[in-house]
Amino acid sequence: MSEIVGGIFTSHVPGIGAAIAKGLQREPYWKPFFDGFAPVHAFLEREKPDIAVVFYNDHGLNFFLDKMPTFAIGAAPEYRHEDEGWGIGGFKPFVGHPALSWHIIEQVVGDEFDPVTCQSMLVDHGVCVPFELCWPHTEAWPVRLVPICINTVQHPLPSPKRALELGRSVGRALENWQGEERIVVLGTGGLSHQLDGERAGFINVDYDKFCLRNIVPDPEALIQHDTLDIVELAGSQGVEILNWIAARGALRGSVRELAHNYHVPISNTAAATLLVENHAMVRA
Amino acid sequence: MLMTRTPSDPARRIIPGTPIFDGEAARKGLGLNAMCYSFNSADNRAAFVIDEEGYMDRFALTDPQREAVRHRDVLGMIAAGGNVYYLAKLAGILGLNVQDLGALQTGLTIDGFKAGLLAHGITERTIAS
Does B48 touch chain A (CB under 8 A)? Predict the structure, then answer.
């Protein structure tokens, strides 16, 4: 039987990828963020997952506004990054897991979700930056990828409740997957930030702390706000918390926070990293 | 910042200083955003640099969109339906990052905009025993 070992939630600011490429991890501006990954690295070294199921949003690499899915599930044998228009690149390619992807698709459609399915899919910094953060200094990624893309770009966005329910459905699929693999779930993006409008630069520490405090013990707390409430509370792009909410939903066992790191600012963003373990049984 | 929210008609929610990229904006902005999406290609970025007006013709930009692009008017681009994730690709050609975009939209200097972000100055870390 598969084992869902835990979840890693992290910001995916493109500038983090540029900082990694330039080797700036120990610079004073970046160190407080990168240092937050020490517990993540120890966890991954200990748990050695085989598969990463990643909830993220595309920023205009694979999807354009001509065809914009609310939920899209990758079912490709491989994924790669391409030029996003402004120069970060050099990300390693990813090996997919089509059998698990289709198993997830069967489960979520059975649970009355209607995802777009993608046998060919580019993945942008929303996937690549978190992988670089989690598995630095590797020749090839040690996990196979199942990417699940949530529309956080064009309103109407899926509701936080819907995102949580999607995650729970994916979690059911992971629990009943008959493979022997160890699975880690990632949710990327956020926390509060806003790139556009006269309110650009908006950050809301109180809301971010509310999310960090509640997402593990009480994810329902995060779905009391609708998507526009979250835009107001977290900024236009802070609504990427939908990816975290979905990823949290996929962890259906006994869930415990192992570590979190919250640092403001990285670029225009309140950057956060949260590590949680997941056990099928409650520990006595 | 307290966690308050503005009660308003959910059909047309107004959040001050915060563009909502909805269906209306997506329809209005399609040409501008399509142009920006094309900038994922280095060849297309080079073509734009060589002939901005001709490149805008290819995507049938509206007059307000053209004016905003000509004047590097970020708020104008957004008002004309531009979405910031796509506009960021145009900004890259112009040598602007998201903090430059922030300064341009808020009327702050770039140092002033960065200072506003740094003013939060928070690092919090917990590790379970």
Answer: no
* Active-site residue, from A125, A137, A155, A263: A125
- Is B109 within 8 Å of chain A by CB? no
Is A97 tagged catalytic? Answer: no
Question: Which domains does chain B show, CATH number per domain?
Answer: 20-118 (1.10.700.10)
Per-residue pLDDT of chain A (284 residues; tens, 9 = 90+): 789 999 999 999 999 999 999 999 999 999 999 999 999 999 999 999 999 999 999 999 999 999 999 999 999 999 999 999 986 677 999 999 999 999 999 999 999 999 999 999 999 999 999 999 999 989 999 999 999 999 999 999 999 999 999 999 999 999 999 999 999 999 999 999 999 999 999 999 999 999 999 999 999 999 999 999 999 999 999 999 999 999 999 999 999 999 999 999 999 999 999 999 999 877 66
CA geometry: angle A91, A123, A137, nearest 5 deg: 25
Distance from CA of A75 to the nearest CA of B (A): 23
Give CA separation, B62 vs A65, B79, B93, in Å: 17, 12, 21
Question: What's the rounded Cα separation, in Å, for the pair A64 and A67?
Answer: 6
CATH number of A3-279: 3.40.830.10
The verdict on a CB contact (< 8 Å) between B127 and A39 is yes
Nearest CA in chain A to B13: A228
pTM: 0.96
As a whole number of angstroms, the distance between CA A244 and CA A11 comes to: 10
